[in-house]
Structures are given as C-alpha cells and as structure tokens.
Write a structure and sequence with these properties.
The protein is mostly helical and 127 residues long. It contains 6 helices and 2 strands; from the N terminus they run ααααββαα. The protein is 53% helix and 3% strand. It binds heme C. The site of heme C has 21 residues, from α4 and α5.
C-alpha cells in the first residue's frame, strides 16, 4: 500500500511540475505585477554582465539553433520553445538552470523581473 501511495504521489508531483512558458511568466511576474519586456530580455540574454559569458555564449544568438557549452563544447539544443517544444515545460528544470546560469553569467541569482523578460524574449522568437 505504501508503494502505491508513493507512486501516486510521484505521478502527481510530476503533473504539478509540468508547465508552459506562459505559466512561468505568470509565476515570476507575481501574477502580472511585473510587466515583461521582450526588448530587455533580448539585451539581457545577449550581453555580458561583468563576467566572461553571456547567456548567448552557450545558447547562441539568436537561440534558435544548436548552442555550444563554453567549457565542455557539448551541444545544447535550441532554447527557443518555437524550435524546441520541450523547452520551458519543466518548472524544476527551469529553476535549476536559472540558478546555475545566472550565477555564472551575472554572479548572482536573476531577479524575477529579469526572468520574466528573458522568458518573454525566448517566447517571442519565431521559427
Ligand atoms: C556555460 C554555458 C551556459 C551559459 C552561459 C548559460 N546557459 Fe542556460 N543552460 C546551459 C546548459 C548546459 C543547460 C542544460 C542543458 C539543456 O537544457 O540543454 C541550460 C539550460 C537552461 C535553461 C533550462 C531550459 C529548459 O527548460 O529546458 C534555461 C531557462 C537557461 N539555460 C537559461 C539561461 C540564461 C537566462 C542564461 C544567462 C543568464 C544562461 N542560460 C546561460 C548552459 C548555459
């Protein structure tokens, strides 16, 4: 019985984690309190912030083709959801990589406003 409860719990938590870019924008914007700016998101993504890399260093400019990791050279699948529907659909994954990548690029966590802008920019990219 415990095992069944555990399995149901796992199934439910993976449902809760599945998301899409609009729900993420809604979450980081604190339900619309922060207005997304595609322009700021684009400039944030493509520019350096006092360190060696920009987001685009690994994800490409624009992030519509396969990127390349700045250290390992490993290919990174396109970031724009229009080209890669699996992108920005897993809240835990997005959280994890925002934390890691913002620290690498900006030297701190990204603010909610920066996250909203980047997501709006990525979401605005067409094929
Ligand atoms: C040193 C290389 C590198 C840099 C710089 C980098 N990223 Fe990434 N990013 C990765 C890798 C590797 C992954 C995980 C592998 C994958 O998803 O293809 C990833 C994944 C992500 C994801 C998860 C996407 C998803 O839903 O699948 C987001 C969001 C993201 N990065 C945003 C950013 C932002 C914003 C910046 C700039 C602040 C940035 N990244 C800079 C390497 C990088």
């Amino acid at each position: 019985m415990k095992l069944i409860a555990l399995l149901i719990g796992l199934a439910m938590s993976s449902c809760v984690m599945a998301t899409d870019v609009n729900s993420l924008i809604n979450k980081y914007s604190q339900n619309g309190k922060i207005a997304p700016s595609i322009k700021n998101g684009e400039s944030f993504f493509n520019n350096k912030h006092g360190k060696d890399w920009s987001c685009a260093t690994c994800h490409g400019t624009p992030p519509t083709s396969i990127g390349k990791h700045a250290v390992t050279d490993k290919p990174i699948q396109p970031m724009a959801p229009a080209l890669n529907p699996e992108r920005l659909t897993d809240e835990a994954k997005v959280e994890k990589w925002f934390r890691r990548n913002c620290n690498d690029v900006v030297g701190r966590e990204c603010t909610d406003s920066e996250k909203v802008d980047v997501l709006a920019y990525l979401n605005s990219i067409k094929k």
